[in-house]
Amino acid sequence: MEEAPDIDYRGVLGRYALYGEIAAGGMATVHYGRLLGSVGFSRTVAIKRLHPHLARDPDFVKMFLSEAKLAARVRHPNVVPTLDVVELEGEILLVMEYVEGESLSRLVRVAKRDKKPLPPRVITGIMCNVLEGLHAAHEAMSEKGVPLGIVHRDVSPQNVLVGADGVARVLDFGVAKATSRASETRNEHIKGKISYMAPEQLARGAIDRRTDIFSAAVVMWQALTGEKLFTGEDVATLVYAIVSDPLRPPSLLNPEVSPELDAVVLRGLDRDQEARWPTARDMALALEKACPPAPVREIGQWVADVCGDAIEYRAAVVAEIEAQSSTNSIPPEPAAKQIPRLSSKPTQPEMPIQQTTEPMPAVQIERPITNGSAVTPAGVGVGVAAPAAPEPRSRLMIAFLAIATLVVLGSVVAMVIFARAAANDGANGAAPPPSVSTDETAISIGTSKTPVVPPRPTTSSSAKPR
Q1: In terms of domains, do 312 and 396 share one?
Q2: φ/ψ (deg, to 5) at 425
Q3: Which residues are catalytic?
Q4: How far apart are CA 69 and CA 77, in angstroms?
């Protein structure tokens, strides 16, 4: 049984599990990653992790995050989408869609090493994809419909990913501006990228979409020939070559390149911005006419022939990562880095039950109970709909009304009893109590129709015995 590949689990940052490296560069390392969803959803991603010294630079981080937000507006099949940007625990992560494939840089290098052909139709198909992706970025709009003016600034073979599906995609939109700022004083880093820069970029002149077109033409020249267009032992020599060396047509090194294809590439390499192709799409259309591109099926087969072993190995790593995450076998993290688990309790806190020391009112108000089916907040049906409990204020009002009703009823009953007693005393010749009025008052009691008039009080200090 074939041994499973080592996935090199690194830990969890935020909601992402981090695994081993796919590639490394002067700015960051690219890792396998896994989005860990809250309800069991997960997804394999590629995570670009900035080097620590860059993640600690406030100016760089600010520019990087700003540019990455703009890059998220670029949506096109020929652009690797930016899914998320994470700033957490001193780390800066750029989360991208994982694409099974290989960089154009490695494809060209391995093809040359193994003496495998670089068919112009395949290169044209790849570069048409690249140019369409660049055009989509150049035309990107903000949420309010305002052009963003995005320029890649770092179009190079390393930033072109050719998928096993035969589709080429552009990487790292929006981060080159921040990278160039951080590397202005580090010649050893920019030496590897300067080979693809346009003259106006080196001279710090006006940069627009035609700057990316120049870089794309350099990439295509290199892909067609297997050689670098501009070389130099140091930065000064390399800059001089870009600005002054005569431009050779690709057909000098690859006889399969037609004169029409030479013309399209050389126009893209014109040092005068105004003389270049006005848009990346214009150059793509010209390439299609000069050399009809290979279909994606043919491009995918060429990628498999050149770098099939590496792609198969990475596919096995991804399969192992997905198998582990699907069985929840990701090793636990320390408490500081654990992803918060979802609680079974509702997110809104329950209202506390209010206690009262007041006695329940003596008079209870009955409410009709309606038979039927009621649904509780949790969605469980019950047989009878119970009346809702009154609020604290309603309880006080009910108690007050009950007490007031009792007082009124008590007063009425007392008056009736007192009147009966006074009538009886009058009939027996007794004097009424002092609190009763001495005016003659007729009071009708029971069924008697004869008014009873109490006598006037006598001056005697003692009442006549009964």
Answers
A1: no
A2: -65, -40
A3: 154
A4: 19
* Burial of 346 (C-beta count, 10 Å sphere; 0-12/13-18/19+): exposed
Please tell me whether residue 102 adopts helix, strand or coil conformation.
strand
Q: Is residue 181 part of a domain?
A: yes
* CATH label of the domain that carries residue 263: 1.10.510.10
Q: What is the pLDDT of residues 402-460, one digit of tens each?
A: 777 777 777 777 776 767 766 665 555 544 444 444 444 333 333 444 444 445 544 44
Number of structural domains (the chain) is: 2
DSSP per-residue letters across 316-367: HHHHHHHHHHHTT-PPP--GGGPPPPPPSS-SSPPPPPPP--SPPPSSPPP-
Max Cα separation, the chain?
152
Query: Tokens 């050149």 identify what position?
Result: 306
Residues 223 and 133 in one domain: yes
The closest of 201, 233, 231 to 215, measured between CA atoms, is 201
Strands (E) located in 168-225: 168-170
User: Could you say which of 275, 307, 327 is where a domain stops?
Assistant: 327
Could you tell me which of 81, 133, 80, 104 has the C-alpha nearest to residue 279?
Answer: 133
Q: How confident is the model at residue 239 (pLDDT cuts 50, 70, 90)?
A: very high
CB contact at 8 A, 235 and 193: no
> Look-up: residue for tokens 């506390």?
352
318 lies in which domain range? 100-327
Alpha-carbon Rg for the chain, nearest whole angstrom, is: 45
Q: What's the predicted TM-score (pTM) here?
A: 0.68
Quick: pLDDT tens for 251-303. 999 999 999 999 999 999 999 999 999 999 999 999 999 999 999 999 999 99
Strand order in the sheet with 82-88: 11-13, 16-24, 28-36, 42-50, 91-97, 82-88
Distance CA 87, CA 355 (A): 46
Find out whether 287 and 124 touch, Cβ atoms under 8 Å.
yes
pLDDT at residue 296, as a whole number = 96
Are 427 and 466 contacting, i.e. CB atoms less than 8 angstroms apart? no
In a domain, 456, yes or no: no
Instruction: Look at residue 40 and tell me if it is in a domain.
Output: no
Write the Ramachandran bin of 162: left for phi over 0, alpha for psi from -120 to 50, otherwise beta.
Answer: beta
Give domain status of residue 20, yes or no.
no
Buried residues in 401-435 as b, exposed as e (16+ CB within 10 A): ebeeeeeeeeeeeeeeeeeeebbebbeeebbbeee
